Amino acid sequence: MNLAEAKLVRDQGLAVAVADYKVMIARFDKAAKPSPGRPPATGPATSRAPHRYGTGSDGMRPIVDDLTPPVDPDRDHWRGGERAAVTLVEYGDYECPYSRMAFRAIQRLEQQLDGQLRFVFRHFPLTRIHPHALAAAHLAEAAALQGRFWPMHELLFGHQQALEDADLLGYADRLGLDRGRLTIDLDGPTVRQHVQVDADSALASGARGTPTLFINGRLHLAGYDQPTLGAALATAIKQR
What we know:
42% of the residues lie in helices and 10% in strands. It is an alpha+beta fold. It has a single domain, classed as 3-Layer(aba) Sandwich (Glutaredoxin). It has a 5-stranded mixed sheet. Strand 2, helix 2 and strand 3 form a beta-alpha-beta unit. Helix 3 packs antiparallel against helix 4 and helix 3 crosses helix 7.
């Protein structure tokens, strides 16, 4: 991603420092380089092969299959059954069209499975190809500090084609967020650190693209369309 072209949200304190982009991009670039004993990646993270619903991904296939670290109910954003039989974790990007496809499928499965499913969302903004993704993730975390993470999550995916500065401010206003507190939170370390820790955990778990899904801590390699993902969740429930 060309940092000079990145959209930095400045109005009313929605500021994303260029340094944040540099740190995150450097980590992504380092992770994409083959290490000793590891085969090189099959293609650049920006490549887009022809795809059908449920098969596309903004990146490369993961190399490990265990969620690192495990879900922490006190830190992670989750919803669903507190003692659900199956936990689905998504590493997603608010500007990624494939993450939005998964979002729609997961919404329907949450309704279908009700208390049997616990859904966890972690941030993995692909800043080199999605210039609005990091700002959107920061806004979601700032909303979380006012108890509005999930409503903001829904708004961002529901309006994925409108993630400019004014759009993000509009979503904050629509949810009734306190502008003064929002300004302080976005300028503070808590928001940025939460997104960065999520991105670090994505890389530690082997994620190289979005969406990357884990079912009960194990990598889900099949499609994320509703029938395929639903069948995988049903199998996990039966195995409990």
